[in-house]
Fold this protein.
Amino acid sequence: MINPKIPKIWYGGDYNPEQWDKATMDEDMRMFKLAGVDVATINVFSWARNQPDEESYHFEWLDDIMDRLAAEGVKVCLGTSTAAHPAWMAKKYPDILRVDYEGRKRKFGGRHNSCPNSPTYRKYAARMARNLAERYKDHPALAIWHVANEYGGYCYCDNCERQFRVWLKERYGTLEKLNAAWNSGFWGHTFYDWDEIVVPNALSEEFEGNRTFFQGISIDYRRFQSDSLLECYLLERDEIKRITPDIPVTTNLMGFYPELDYFKWAKHMDVVSWDNYPAIDTPVSFTAMSHNLMRGLKSGQPFMLMEQTPSVQNWSPYNSAKRPGVMRLWSYQAVAHGADTVMFFQLRRSIGACEKFHGALIEHVGHEHTRVFRECAELGQELQKLGDKILDARSNAKVAIMYDWENRWALELSSGPTKELKYVDEIHKYYAALYDQNIQTDIISVEEDFGKYDVVIAPVLYMVKPGVAKRIEQFVSDGGTFVTTFFSGIVNEHDLVTLGGYPGELRNVTGIWAEEIDALLPGQHNQIVMKQNSGALAGSYSCGILCDVIHAETAEVLAEYGADFYEGTPVLTKNRFGKGQAYYVGSSPDAAFLRDFITDLCDEQGVKPLLNTPEGVEVAERVKEGKSLLFVMNHNAEEMTFDAGSESLTDLLTDRALSGLVSIAGRGVMILERPVSN
Ligand code: GLA
Ligand code: ZN
């Protein structure tokens, strides 16, 4: 349980009463009760209010709100207010201002705007966290700490440059090692003095935001900036933990956000929390996958849905309203994938600046007679009724997909072989194929214990970090099934090519080597032609983006290319290795191939769909105390029918017993309880 002070799925969200008068707050309290709100996130952007100058701190307003919420039985997710620095601080201490990618020194403005290596930022942020912890350590409303907000963005200032050199010294020890890691003999970039190293941005090695001449320094700069922001989080967390060791600490993450290595961050968070803002046309499988990534950050531990909009966003080009039922449906989707909270941004809409058109529980009209409020209040009541039945329930997946931020940086900074290759898209293709068949799938780090799974899939594992290949070999030789793809095993952690034939360190387990890599033009395709029609895989399929030209060594060839100078050479192989097997998919296949490939793979491994449902009806599972909770979610607007099987299942939302053919309303949700089958 995140905190036994709220022994149910938390319900509430961001609340900014500093923008309102007392009468409005009285109304808010009344409506919170109507909506079943039991948690409010406050003090996220109040630094300037809390600290109007260098020496004064004013928390009286916050005392009032904390006390008021406590009196109403609403618990507090307490922000530390350090996600946007005060204007006076920027004026007095310009070191707090970032320098951007183009090398321009920023002025005061925006948010998430502090240089992570600014001594001023670090000093005053830590001091703020300490002051807050001292002041509220015994407050009955305090349920969790919310440090800063959505850490992100890089800085390229002189302080960062100096700290980068310190970070590099720690990482490499000597310039010889650094020169070797960056292959700096290329283009005569050898460094003879640490001070010769400058930050990689548009003034030096990089261009167009994500292109670079030197992958080594650019990947290291991403690691360094991710670590720098993490240090800022840790400074605050340590102050808080010293004073309130028993209150959990989190900071809100952003799913597949590219800039921070969240696997590293999550080790320092008591509970992962994240902000989920899909657009109306974001595939629901992508949202599901993002939740699973957040769940995977701490090996399956439940996470917090810290923010979602009850209705609209303001920052997309087109901010469509969530259709009736969709807010509820997507809230349960989060819970189905491991969330133990359902929280919104925001509880009341502000009147000015850029978020006045962002949805809220309480709309500008100010009363509860709105569609959005009604839907929220109904969900609030349902969550109260569910009590603690779902809390702490885990995923029981037998299939996992590996995802790695450093691999993403390396892949996307690579010069060649193609600009079409998008790591997250390749991950999603495999995830979607599993999702469509209701196969429960975890998203895991390369450090995870693979032994928990029957099947581990590593799409485009371009960078193989130390020890990973050995652990994959162990997993397969113990009986596991491993799948990897084209453009895998190419480099080590420094982005230096592993010599001796691709896929380098994965060559042994896959039993193949790839001699050439061909990039196809947009819209250009090759074919995957099956050698035999067995199982679901039959005939031929389309593939594109990259084609590895492969030689099978110990592997069996299952399919060959259908065209071009490598027609008739292997594109899909299977290698028996110890008690298990490793597949290599030599190109980026179409959805039909992945559907059939996944069907065969799961059949072979005895991994069963949770249920068979029609298209658009998602099923996800959480397991607790020998019970399986099957979340059935109809993403279609129309009613659908599915086969719930012969045993009698109870829908926790209605207490109805169900079996056989069951219909589910358009955008409806069921939580079916059954005994765990394996
Ligand atoms: C983010 C932030 C919030 C708010 C919302 C709006 O998630 O954390 O402060 O700006 O976006 O969607
Ligand atoms: Zn900086």
User: Anything to note?
Assistant: The chain has a mean pLDDT of 97. The CA atoms of residues 295 and 301 lie 6 Å apart. The longest helix spans residues 215-243.
